[in-house]
Amino acid sequence: MEKQTLGEIAAQKLLGMIQDKGYTAGDKLPTEAELVERLGVGRNTVREALRILMSRNIVTIRQGSGTFISDKNGVADDPLGFSMIEDRRKLTEDLIQIRVMLEPPIAALAAQNATAEDVRVLGDILLELESCMERHEDYAEKDSQFHAHIAGCSHNLVMTNLVPVITDGVRVFAGSVRETEYDKTRESHRRIYEAIRDRRPVDAQQAMYFHLMFNDNRYRDEMK
Amino acid sequence: MEKQTLGEIAAQKLLGMIQDKGYTAGDKLPTEAELVERLGVGRNTVREALRILMSRNIVTIRQGSGTFISDKNGVADDPLGFSMIEDRRKLTEDLIQIRVMLEPPIAALAAQNATAEDVRVLGDILLELESCMERHEDYAEKDSQFHAHIAGCSHNLVMTNLVPVITDGVRVFAGSVRETEYDKTRESHRRIYEAIRDRRPVDAQQAMYFHLMFNDNRYRDEMK
């Protein structure tokens, strides 16, 4: 067992405090001086604890205005260690394989569980994505947002954190595949959205499956 | 955009160096003095860089013997931010929901892709798991190892890193469910193993599905 430093112990305490108070993204933490008092440790230990929670994306420090709860929900940067996988092509293929396993049932869950407000936001993202495509601009980021929001619509908290890690991974590592199939992609996104909006889980699942398979084929073609 | 500190820039450089040299788990890194020279930065910056890579579980520092590549493959502690999810019961249910989506197709992939050596190791883990059960000991850790190794047998690098995060999460948060159904659990593990060993992906998938559903039912019964 590795020994915990004072900073790590204080970080654990501070995390407990954050949970007890029910702080959420954007909330401001007490000042360093207040934390010294509440945690009963020195200023350097408080700083070390804040540094640890910052590296875990639990808090974020804005110079001059204080410490806030991060909007990254404690999901680490590169949480699954992609940077340690040397074979980028294999990594991309493995990420696509996971998307094909995960995202179709997620889309079904989204069609089952999305609230009216969820559907409204998903529709807005789709419109922005489509207008990006109409202007023939790079739509990769809007596309990630679309898939991340579908994960959110599932109301599975872990999926909401996990899906962006996988889709962003594909975006980063399959960067070579140009987003040029505007019409086909547009159509398949719209099919997914409409199935979720109309509460048709089976159709949503199959539409997502078709969409991912189509992208996978494009990736394979480009790699040839 | 947040500004990168000198330590973060040096950490990035050091990570690049680790990748270029093809270092793997357990390999020793150059000394602090050598890193000062190679990275062209001061000693404090090297220390900060090492601290960052340590917090990401890329390296581990063993007091007195030096810095080594961590065997955690750069998978962060609590990578998906479970500690920020307040509702523990919902978290457990969501984790189980993900297992039910992910692990059956993973078992199928394992039956398709496992090497003879993979199968041999899986058989050894199963025997240890069974002897734990025969002695009516807590077999939770061996069980995690069994599921993690099946993920490894899939040869999908991301799954290998992801599955333990999910299964360990269930183990931690569903801690209240006692592992007492020795016979049933024993039988369902054996069915999974034999299907993987005999290269029957469809049977492996269904056996895993049965196993997880059985556990899910036990969890729901205990929560009533």
> What is the CA-atom radius of gyration of chain A, in angstroms?
21 Å
Unreliable spans of chain A are none
End-to-end Cα distance of chain A, whole Å, is 48 Å
User: How many discrete structural domains of chain A?
Assistant: 2
For this structure, what is the CATH homologous superfamily of the largest domain in chain A?
A: GntR ligand-binding domain-like
CATH topology of the largest domain in chain A: Four Helix Bundle (Hemerythrin (Met), subunit A)
Strand order of the largest sheet of chain A: 1-2
CATH class of the largest domain in chain A: Mainly Alpha
- Amount of beta strand of chain A: under 5%
Q: How many β-strand runs of chain A?
A: 2
Architecture of the largest domain in chain A, according to CATH? Up-down Bundle
Helix share, percent of chain A: 55-70%
Largest interface: A-B, 47 and 46 residues
SSE succession of chain A? HHHEEHHHHHH
Contiguous helical run count of chain A: 9
